[in-house]
Amino acid sequence: MSTVNENTVLVRRLDVTARVTDQVAALSDRSEGGILLETLIGRYVLDRDAREVWLNIDGRRSVGETVSAIVEATGLREDEVAEPVNGLCARLLEHGLVEVVAPAGANVA
């Protein structure tokens, strides 16, 4: 199992469908402005804050760059953002909603 750190680059899995939660608001108390992620085996509702992280996961940016983007967008301090973003990215990876991008030229076994 892969671990997540500030240099990890993640990409959203192609088999994950994302919908705005206005269509499914009954699934979460904090769904306003969030996003529903669906796979063949599960549904996951991300709140508004987690949605911003999800939108920054693009296969090009590292987790550290995502933290910086969230800091810039919210005006929060990096020490307030880094742990929650790292934790969310680890959970997304654990649930199979994202995957680690292999660096260019890396041998993938």
Task: List how many beta strands DSSP finds.
Answer: 5
Structural class: alpha+beta
Mean pLDDT over the full residue set = 85
For the biggest sheet, the summary is: 3 strands, antiparallel
CATH topology type: Outer Surface Protein A, domain 3
Judging by the overall fold, what is the CATH architecture? Alpha-Beta Complex
Q: What is the topology, as strand order, of the major beta sheet?
A: 2-3-4
**Number of helical runs?**
3
Distance between the termini: 13 Å
Describe the global form.
globular
Strand content: 15-25%
Note the run of SSEs as H and E.
EEEEHHHE
What's the number of domains?
1
What is the share of helical residues?
Answer: 25-40%
How large is the radius of gyration?
Answer: 14 Å
CATH top level is Alpha Beta
Low-confidence stretches: none
